[in-house]
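Final report, results section. Input specification for complex C-07:
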Amino acid sequence: MRFISGNSALRTTFLRTAAVSALCALTLAAAPSVASATELLTNGSFEDIGAGVPEGWGGLTYYAGGPVALPGWSVSAGSVDLTSSASFWGPAYDGNYSLDINGWDAGTISQSFATVLGQLYTVSFAYGRNVAGAPDPALATVSAGGTTFNVSAANDASFGSGHNMLWKTGGFSFTGTGSPTTLTLAAVTGGNGGVFFDKLSVQTDGAGAVPEPATWALMIGGFGIMGAALRRRRRALAAL
Ligand SMILES: [Ca+2]
Ligand SMILES: [Ca+2]
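Structure output:
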């Protein structure tokens, strides 16, 4: 950069402006940015069957209080089935396994995760129906953060047939409280066939997050310094 000889006020102003620009760049870099979505669920697609051993009919059952755990989830009532894509209850919506919320009877599964106060969380999932013997309609609920999504799967062609299961998708959003939140899937209708689920997901991209106080202080301080520098620059230019 070439300065006009003898114009020290202008040179000082330029250096100050450059320093403030650098400070503001650092401040903005420290501000919260839109990050990529973070998945909060473990084994939401039910691909990890843990210590379970698939049976001849193409699936396996997990029981509340049973000896085999469904990884990531707690079976808190009844039982649930996992079935493979190769079985009558296939293909899965995602991967090789999907879940019948009615195992041998109405089941309930859940898992908990931490939330940030004021942050937006999005729940999404695929659902179908047990094409062999579910009631019409098969009913279940998906709930988290004070919101409940009622799933109804009627006995019609839109859910396909054996070896050709078809899927629909659902979801909702809730706002974090700062305390752990529990996502729960529960059968509403009884029997050994019910709503099928796959690819459960709870994601947040930080949208709606409340910036931390330290970040706000940096931003406000940065803007204040920038304003003062601009005022000094105007005075310096007026004095030329
Ligand atoms: Ca799956
Ligand atoms: Ca079943």
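Residues 54 and 60 are 5 Å apart (CA to CA). The radius of gyration is 28 Å. This concludes the modelling results for the funded period.
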